[in-house]
Design a protein that fits this description.
It is built from 7 helices and 7 strands; from the N terminus they run H-E-H-E-H-H-E-E-E-H-E-E-H-H. By secondary structure, the chain is of the alpha/beta class. Strands 1-3-2-6-7 form a 5-stranded mixed β-sheet. Strands 4-5 form a two-stranded antiparallel ribbon. Strand 6 (162-166) and strand 7 (172-177) form a beta hairpin. The longest helix has 20 residues, at 2-21. It is globular and about 50 Å long.
Amino acid sequence: MKLKSIIFAVIVVAVAACKSKQATSDQITMPDPPTMIGTTQAPPPPPPPPAPAATTGAEAITWLSLEDAVEMQSVLPKPIMVDVYTQWCGPCKMLAKNTFGDARVAAFLSEHYYCVKFDAESPDSLNFAGITYKNPEYVPNQPGRNGVHQFTRFLNVSGYPTLFFFDKGAQPVGPVVGYKTPAQLEIFLHFFKEEKYNTVRTQEEWAEYEKNFTVTWN
């Protein structure tokens, strides 16, 4: 319970910090019959198209850029989940394989969120809220760690992986830090989807929310 309280405290602090600095930050950049002539006999119908291959897990998630996710919010408002990762991060790979690879997680995310993958050390520019964010420390072909993107700093990401959530209006809300199994992630996905951060503000309120939450992704 102590660890869970600490995690919740981090979320509460991050929510407050993101809302207070969104307007003033100077950093950041969030998913593609021919007619037969001269014959008296109708051509045979074309063969039916092959059935699409079944997709499960991470393959069922449409990963977008943050810019595209924000644009899609104007058509169909949904919160955004940004998976902030690095190429060298082992737990990031575990999250992608074990958690996003879970069909239940993928189905929930696909229905209720716009999902973005963001390399925290990417050399690419990112545009968000009228500001362009870059990675001026990036060195081409350098193995291992390779600078920190300005958008990563904007989000105050301190560890990888970090799942950072934005509300339906593309306002930063808060992070969930570290590898999470499907069962561990479920409560957070509901928490941000249902905008519980507007009413659950103390450790006691979080404890009550957690006590009443039923985990189904065991």
